[in-house]
């Protein structure tokens, strides 16, 4: 078989590698550090591109506060002052954002995930990880969260998350993935971006949503001297929406496809860090602060679940 899965050490961290031997495509996953994908390498023609930017050392990865490649559940982005109301009750989350103003990015990041399954087929290989939330501070619910990473023979990488309410009462749920994307050693100034949206979310000075406004930038847009730190409402003509990063010089396009529709990934964050060497493209199932506004929020009844898929490829 062209696929293999093996373990290796990254400092004190244990990684699991899904490797396709014909193309050298691979993804590297760290269950004990929030189940993150540390590395994703995909081939286009003669070039093997490392497309995820993450901290370069084990210590830097453990200490990272920028959420590189982290899984964000049961909420993503900010909840102001860590407070939210759900079904008439008030809850207080730990204010874990730098500066202590807000709760940010959920409850599973940096935690030790359980390795549920490793599967190798002729045309794909996958790893499934899970983490159980059980009456966490500010989130007194029981939710089983899992993620399956799959590498396909045609070069597609797939992330599928699932969340099931194992408790006795309804619970709010939102998921997002926080990868920083790069294309070789080229910096952001040379790339174009194609954002599948005609409407963006407007924020206050605390980066909390206060409304929406039209987004009418011509696409694809050259990123030279453009800065993004925006949440977009996704526009989809079918069951998926695609964001593209395009490098004309390298003749390669990175495609991030998010499943859309009821309960799926109908929001998108795009952020250009000051170093201008990568772009964060984050598919979200709900708007920022959805725990308070309800915008896109999934409410899981006892025994019920939700899932969604993000697919990454090069063309």
UniProtKB/TrEMBL annotation:
The keyword Oxidoreductase is assigned to this record: no
Question: Which UniProt keywords are given for this protein, alphabetically ordered?
Answer: Calcium, Isomerase
Reply yes or no: does the keyword Calcium apply: yes
> Which InterPro entries does this UniProt record tie to the protein?
Aldose_1/G6P_1-epimerase, Gal_mutarotase_sf_dom, GH-type_carb-bd
Signal sequence, renumbered to the chain: none
Enzyme class (EC, first level): isomerase
Give the required cofactors. Ca(2+)
Q: Could you say which EC number(s) this protein's record lists?
A: 5.1.3.3
Q: Which GO terms describe its molecular function?
A: aldose 1-epimerase activity
Fetch the PANTHER family from UniProt. Answer: ALDOSE-1-EPIMERASE, GALACTOSE MUTAROTASE
Q: Subunit structure of this entry?
A: Monomer.
Q: What is this protein called?
A: Aldose 1-epimerase
Q: Which organism is it from?
A: Dyadobacter fermentans
């Amino acid at each position: 078989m062209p696929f293999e899965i093996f373990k290796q050490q990254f400092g004190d961290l244990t990684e699991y590698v899904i490797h396709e031997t014909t193309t050298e495509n691979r993804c590297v996953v760290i269950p004990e550090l929030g189940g993150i994908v540390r590395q994703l390498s995909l081939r286009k023609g003669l070039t093997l591109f490392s497309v995820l930017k993450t901290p370069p050392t084990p210590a830097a990865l453990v200490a990272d506060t920028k959420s590189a490649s982290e899984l964000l559940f049961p909420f993503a982005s900010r909840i102001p002052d860590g407070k939210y109301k759900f079904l008439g009750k008030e809850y207080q989350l730990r204010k874990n954002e730098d500066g202590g103003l807000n709760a940010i990015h959920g409850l599973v990041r940096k935690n030790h995930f359980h390795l549920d399954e490793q599967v190798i087929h002729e045309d794909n290989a996958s790893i499934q990880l899970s983490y159980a939330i059980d009456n966490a501070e500010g989130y007194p619910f029981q939710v089983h969260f899992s993620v399956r990473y799959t590498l396909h023979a045609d070069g597609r990488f797939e992330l599928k998350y699932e969340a099931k309410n194992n408790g006795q009462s309804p619970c709010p749920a939102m998921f997002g993935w926080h990868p920083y994307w790069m294309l070789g050693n080229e910096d952001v100034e040379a790339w174009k971006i194609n954002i599948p949206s005609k409407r963006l979310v407007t924020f206050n000075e605390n980066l909390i949503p206060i409304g929406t406004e039209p987004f009418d930038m011509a696409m694809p847009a050259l990123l030279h001297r453009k800065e993004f730190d925006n949440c977009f409402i996704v526009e989809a003509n079918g069951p998926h929406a695609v964001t593209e990063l395009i490098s004309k010089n390298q003749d390669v396009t990175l495609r991030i496809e998010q499943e859309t529709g009821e309960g799926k990934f109908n929001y998108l964050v795009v952020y250009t860090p000051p170093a201008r060497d990568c772009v964060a493209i984050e598919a979200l199932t709900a708007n920022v602060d959805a725990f308070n506004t309800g915008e896109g929020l999934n409410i899981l009844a006892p025994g019920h679940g939700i899932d969604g898929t993000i697919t990454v490829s090069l063309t």
